[in-house]
Design a protein that fits this description.
Blueprint (H helix, E strand, L loop, with lengths): L2 H21 L43 H10 L8 H18 L4 E4 L4 H18 L9 E7 L5 H13 L2 E7 L2 H11 L5 E3 L15 E3 L8 E3 L7 H10 L58 H9 L1 H32 L3
Length: about 350
């Protein structure tokens, strides 16, 4: 067989198999389990904290929060001495300054359903109510952006939808990567000048941040605001639990830091064989240095996407490279033998 013939045969083999994978892509092994009738299994259903965890909430069962009561409960934390006094006080001051500087039209909030931005959203709704009381205006929808991972948890998506109702969000969902998604969001909401972010000091790239930081050169231009930057992991959970703020049910299943289904697992430091779920809830983790123990190192966006969608394609590509290597090795050996015969060696 000639070299061109081998290449053509290999190309036809790869193309025919790849088309089959595109028509019948393999299902992710990490998607929530489903029952025979197609419904999500009980162990994966999204629940409201404080409500029946085995009951799947419907959109018409979720009621908007009374921002007046939320504001009263949150601001009560800065009226008496308690462990949350300082972090809550500082966060509210940063949010109030943001509202006074940019107003409701110029301010948005980044919300992805995680515990940190849930705390931020609850704090913001409290400060927003107080801010609006200075005028006769109605409480506006909270401008927000949800930048998604390629393979998000269904529980996270469902919780974001629930939160959209509870907090009256004007939410735009955009798939990453981050830089392009932010540019798209600002095109859709050109009045936005600043975005509140739930980044904390121990998050990646959070070490050298401050409360107000402009975006870096080459990125969409806006002010990044970090009201909970210096909050500790335990303070996040003290806030959520003490005020009974609903949070994503994955945290009850042992997850402590949420990414996408391809790079996030239960935190191994919460493994508990005595727990029916196999893991303790996130709030039981006391060592915040282990918060991201359930997260794995992520590969590049494009390569990761291709590998997840068509894992067999990666195997075939490796096989093709191996066959090509063997072919060239044999051809090189034949050329060597011919040269030796030619020169009488």
């Amino acid at each position: 067989m000639t070299f061109m013939g081998a290449r053509l045969l290999l190309k036809n083999f790869v193309d025919s198999n790849l088309m089959d994978f595109k028509d019948n892509p393999p299902k992710s092994p990490f998607l929530p389990l489903t029952t025979t009738n197609g419904e999500t299994s009980q162990s994966h259903k999204v629940s409201l904290n404080g409500c029946d965890k085995n009951k799947k909430m419907k959109a018409d069962e979720i009621l908007p929060f009374d921002f007046g009561k939320v504001s009263q409960q949150v601001y009560a934390l800065v009226e008496i001495d308690n462990p949350l006094y300082e972090p809550v006080k500082h966060a509210l001051e940063v949010i109030e300054e943001s509202l006074n500087t940019y107003g409701t039209d110029g301010l948005a909030l980044s919300f992805n359903g995680g515990k940190d931005c849930t705390v931020l959203l609850h704090l913001f709704s409290a400060a927003l109510y107080k801010f609006i009381q200075k005028s006769a205006e109605r409480i506006p929808k909270i401008q927000s952006v949800y930048i998604t991972h390629q393979d998000p948890f269904l529980e996270v998506d469902a919780f974001v939808k629930e939160s959209t109702i509870r907090y009256n969000l004007d939410l735009i969902k955009i798939e990453g990567p981050m830089k392009q998604a932010l540019a798209t969001y600002l095109e859709k909401r050109p009045s936005v000048q600043a975005i509140l972010v739930g980044t904390r000091r121990n998050d990646p790239h959070g070490e050298h941040l401050s409360d107000f930081v402009p975006t870096d050169r080459g990125w969409p231009s806006f002010m990044r605001i970090h009201p909970i930057l210096d909050w500790h992991y335990t303070q996040i959970w003290d806030f959520l639990m003490s005020l009974k703020v609903p949070y994503c049910t994955l945290y009850d299943a042992g997850y402590t830091s949420l990414g996408s289904t391809d790079n996030t697992r239960e935190n191994p430091d919460l493994r508990n064989p005595d727990n029916p779920k196999g893991f303790d809830p996130a709030w039981k983790l006391t060592d915040e240095s282990k918060e991201r123990s359930g997260r794995s190192r992520k590969e590049t966006y494009a390569r990761n996407s291709q590998a997840r969608k068509y894992p067999q394609y990666i195997c075939i590509k490796q096989l093709a490279l191996s066959i090509s290597y063997c072919y060239y090795s044999l051809r090189y050996a034949a050329d060597i033998r011919s040269a030796l015969r030619l020169y009488g060696a």
